[in-house]
Amino acid sequence: MEEKKKDLLRRLTIISIPFVFVAIPSIVIIVGMLSPHAAEPRDAAAAAQSPAQNHSVSMLSTMTGGQMILSCRAAFAGNWEYFHYFILDPYKPQRAYFQPPTVGGESYAILCKWGYMGNFLQDVVVFNSSAAYARRCRVEEGGCHYLFQDGHMFLVTGKQPTKAAPEQRREKALVGDLVLRECTHVLAVFPTMCRYKRHDHQYVGNIIGRWRWWFNY
Ligand SMILES: *[C@@H]1O[C@H](CO)[C@@H](O)[C@H](O)[C@H]1NC(C)=O
Ligand SMILES: *[C@@H]1O[C@H](CO)[C@@H](O)[C@H](O)[C@H]1NC(C)=O
């Protein structure tokens, strides 16, 4: 009797293996494929795409203390999606293209978290469809170029004058200051003392700590 019970249990175990590893995952996958998906946010944008809608932002750091990182997201219609992660080595510009949706007439913005040598900012706006400079970020107009120089962030727009278009010019405008700390080592026994460097203009974003940098948008 006891032997029979054990045998039955063994058989049940063997029979159940394909269910656990094959049948159940298959059902999960099939149900997942059949269930309605959330609308792709890019659908509307794709329909409205035209060369004139092609925009770009580029980043260039001339600050040689280390790599600068910008982790950017796009905010639209109360929602947001990942946009681009810039890892900037000094003097190596990077560019990213985007097509802000024209439907709905809602504001489209790109906000970044900024990090450089243990200093962090969030909500650094690099594009805002409602701002006056927005049309200058169109690829046709030359795009928007952000320059990080000596603790400042500048926006450079426009194109260099050429023979064919001598009226063209580039413009450089200050966006604001970057947060930077200076640290002093007061003897080896004391912890390093850091304080924020003096700055003359508003910061380009809000100061955050390392934890917020890693875990928060
Ligand atoms: C935007 O312009 C860039 C540079 O001209 C091009 O490489 C890219 O394919 C364009 N993107 C779209 C969606 O038109
Ligand atoms: C974009 O610009 C508009 C108009 O100036 C402003 O109300 C809005 O707060 C800005 N959005 C962001 C994310 O800065």
From TrEMBL:
Residues passing through the membrane, by range: 12-34
Protein name as catalogued: DUF7771 domain-containing protein
Keywords on record: Membrane, Transmembrane, Transmembrane helix
Record-annotated DUF7771 domain positions: 110-207
UniProt keyword annotation of Methyltransferase present: no
Alphabetical list of Pfam families matching this protein: DUF7771 (PF24974)
